[in-house]
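Tokens in:
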């Protein structure tokens, strides 16, 4: 009897991207839920304001996508522009604009990740040895963690956050 060997696939790259983008859509709605005067100043228990948490997510996602595709972990986009030099917005509209620009970067670069690349190890940001798929999970986990902090802020302000299960 002949044995056929296949590599099991739990989730396709397309489904993983949709999962991540679902979280990003929810985080975007969380940014929108903040009163503009609290987004950049309000915190609880010494944590950073939600604008800073969202800024961290933005600053990691674009350069990570570039690294996932190229194996280079310089903080530059595909045009060679330093992503760390992006101005930090000081308005809710500006933060949402950067969020949307990062979403476009993710959507543009994602199809360029070779399927075999997800299993390869890189030294992410020249700091952490990790498989590419694990780096993607880290970005998603980090976003969920910080969005949870945002939910605490919103609730403490008397604002009901967006339902966490609604990611469309």
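Residues out:
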């Amino acid at each position: 009897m002949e044995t056929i060997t296949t590599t099991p696939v739990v989730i396709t790259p397309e489904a993983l991207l949709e999962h991540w983008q679902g979280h990003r859509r929810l985080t975007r709605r969380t940014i929108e839920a903040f009163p503009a005067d609290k987004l950049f100043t309000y915190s609880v228990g010494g944590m950073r304001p939600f604008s800073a948490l969202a800024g961290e997510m933005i600053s990691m996602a674009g350069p990570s996508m570039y690294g996932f595709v190229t194996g280079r972990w310089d903080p530059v986009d595909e045009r060679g522009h330093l992503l760390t030099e992006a101005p930090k917005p000081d308005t809710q509209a500006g933060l949402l604009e950067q969020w949307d620009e990062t979403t476009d970067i993710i959507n543009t670069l994602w199809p360029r990740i070779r399927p075999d690349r997800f299993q390869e190890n890189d030294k992410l940001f020249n700091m952490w040895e990790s498989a590419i798929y694990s780096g993607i999970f880290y970005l998603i986990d980090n976003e969920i963690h910080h969005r949870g902090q945002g939910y605490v802020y919103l609730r403490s302000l008397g604002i009901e956050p967006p339902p966490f299960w609604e990611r469309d």
